[in-house]
Amino acid sequence: MNFSETLYTIRKQKKLSQKKLAEIANVSQASINYWEKGQRTPSIEAIEKLANALDVPTSQLLGEDYMIDDGFIFTFDNENDLKEVGQKKLIFPTKRKTLLDAFSQLNTDGQDKVIEYTEDILENPKYKKDPGNDNQDQE
Question: Which range is the signal sequence, renumbered to this chain (predicted)?
Answer without folding.
Answer: none
